[in-house]
Design brief:
Structural class: mainly alpha
Order of helices and strands: EEHHH
Radius of gyration: 16 Å
Helix content: 40-55%
Distance between the termini: 37 Å
Length: 97
């Protein structure tokens, strides 16, 4: 299955990716799952008072981080001022302590 940019997209918009093949889709899905599992674990630890301080989860926004970071080069920096766990994970931050 190939996903393509809709024909109704205005001509001045030039997407970086015009088609998404199965392999790319699976990579994005795997990234979204890594982010979701991390976020759910952090939420659980926070509710159990094992993490202290403010925690802003991004559950439901995994696709944004996965898609944006998939378009970055290895040497590109990423900054997210709020709910940044997903962006860090999508960019390749290790999940191990």
């Amino acid at each position: 299955m190939v996903w393509a940019i809709p024909a109704s997209t205005p001509p001045h918009i030039k997407p970086l990716v015009t088609e998404l093949d199965g392999e790319q889709a699976l990579r994005l899905l795997a990234t979204m799952w890594r982010i979701r599992l991390f976020e759910e674990r952090v939420g659980m630890l926070t509710r159990g008072d094992e993490i202290h301080g403010l925690v802003h989860l991004s559950v439901g926004q995994e696709g944004v981080a996965a898609a944006v970071c998939s378009q970055l080069r290895d040497d590109d920096a990423v900054y997210s001022g709020h709910r940044a766990h997903g962006h860090a994970i999508a960019k390749g931050a290790p999940l191990e302590p």
